[in-house]
Amino acid sequence: MKIAIITGGSRGLGKAMATSIAAHGQDVILTYQHNKADADAVVAQIEQRGRKAVALQLDVSDTASFPAFRDAVKQALKQRWNRDTFNFLVNNAGIGIHAAITEVTEQQFDQLVDIQLKGPLFLTQTLLPLMEDGGRIINISSGLARFSGPGYSVYGATKGAIEVLTRYMAVEFGSRHITANVVAPGPAATDFAGGAVRDNAAYNQALASRTALGRVGEAEDIGGVVASLLTDEMGWINGQRIEASGGINL
């Protein structure tokens, strides 16, 4: 039995990842920051499919809390699965801040770096001793690391940084046969960034018109990609950026 840890797994893309991974026959530990009810609902949905799941609270911007989170993971593994290790880590939790370079604040900059670069780095470092050899790490980037959307400069820059960091993870963890890859979603109709893509019909259509497949993504599109990368057949993919965008701005 293989177990995946997914940060930010209570809603949006993370929820779709969690349920897709469960549909592929794997168990899940998902994290949430504030909304325990949403997280518990995802756990219930996974358990209805016959898989095991646990929801744990985590603020990925608070690196000081990571040792306690590792202890909570160890306890959950022992109590729910009677084991000491897990197999996969999906660093998904993130936020979207729209601010022009001339207007972005230092607080916004620090928040994006803490959540989308510092957090994944040090959470991976903290959890690595619990990961089985032959495990996998998936970091979530964005299409905005390849193409530019005005107002998302710092967001895109932190995603570009996580892509570089992922390649270093692939090299440094290779001796343990742990792979590290990036999934970079394009625009998706979720509640991300206030639900702009989902709720603004004109914006949605503008993005769809620039996409080869003629629509924006859905959460399930991204969840399926992440789940597929954790299957046995994908073990030879390492240090790669996989963009799941339907072919936007090609």
- Work out the helix count: 8
Secondary structure class reads alpha/beta
Query: What is the CATH domain class?
Result: Alpha Beta
The CATH superfamily bears the name NAD(P)-binding Rossmann-like Domain
CATH architecture call = 3-Layer(aba) Sandwich
Q: What's the overall average pLDDT, rounded?
A: 95
Number of strands: 7
What global shape is seen?
globular
Spatially, the strands of the biggest sheet line up as: 3-2-1-4-5-6-7
Q: Radius of gyration from the CA trace? A: 17 Å
Number of domains: 1
- The rounded distance between the terminal residues' Cα atoms is 39 Å
Q: Please give the largest β-sheet.
A: 7 strands, parallel
CATH fold-level assignment: Rossmann fold
Uncertain residue ranges: none
How big a fraction of the residues is strand? 15-25%
Helix/strand order, N-terminal first: EHEHEHEHEHEHHHE
The percentage helix is 40-55%
Structure description:
By secondary structure, the protein is of the alpha/beta class. The chain has one domain: NAD(P)-binding Rossmann-like Domain (Rossmann fold), CATH 3.40.50.720. It is 43% helix and 17% strand. It has 8 helices and 7 strands. It has helices at residues 12-23, 36-48, 66-81, 106-127, 153-172, 196-199, 201-209, 219-229, and strands spanning 3-6, 27-32, 53-57, 86-91, 131-140, 179-185, 241-244. It has a 7-stranded parallel β-sheet, with helices on both faces. β2, α2 (36-48) and β3 form a beta-alpha-beta unit. α1 (12-23) crosses α8 (219-229) and α4 (106-127) packs parallel to α5. It is globular, with a radius of gyration of 17 Å. The mean pLDDT is 95.
